[in-house]
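tmp note - Two component transcriptional regulator
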Amino acid sequence: MADVHAGGSPGDDRHRASILVVDDDPRITTLLMAALSKDGYAVTVVNESRKVVSMELSSVDLILCDVMMPHMDGFALLAAIRERVSCPIIFLTAKTDEDSAVLAYGLGADDYIRKPFGIAELRAKVRARLSQGSRRGRPLLHFGPLDMDLQARQIRVDGRNANLTDAEYRICALLAEHPGRAYAPMQIWEACLASEDDPAANDTDSDATAAVRVHLSNARRKLKALGVDPIRTIWSVGYQWVA
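out:
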């Protein structure tokens, strides 16, 4: 079975949430495709979980995933993709034991619906998850191919995670939230790194400044490896984020 795409009225793609359905049962996928498309969502069905690992997922707003699938079950799939996706993930499963539900939530699932399920209940859960994201106004900053998710505390470039450390991310977030503004190294240290747990938290300004420079150098190296360089050095002043 090939991957299937469907959605609401032609021409409204920009306004419809994108839902990825991962299930190898054609009866389930047909049911979900019909119901969710009727609700106006852009639906993509993938019948083999291994395909999802190599897919571009940055534009997906919600994932519905079966647990018991051949080759790679839903738990293994979630473990493989959770680091690079921040959208809600809802499991659909015939497994009724409590341990499976606990495992799913531990891996980062947002909901766990047991089969057989009522389609009205599932549609309500999908609406609720998408509505929560909309009300929350998930804090995202976009700079060309670079996306900064302030809630997940991640930076992605064309969907690829930059894998910044916490200190590197905090510095980038400070600069990116105020693009064009130059920050002196000590301002960055005081805003992002001044804690007893950070190696820069000592008595000398020179050590704090050096720590900021090291973190920034590492962050820039990782971002440059992904093809972007948004941090500019302003000599004798500090650093700024170039929008």
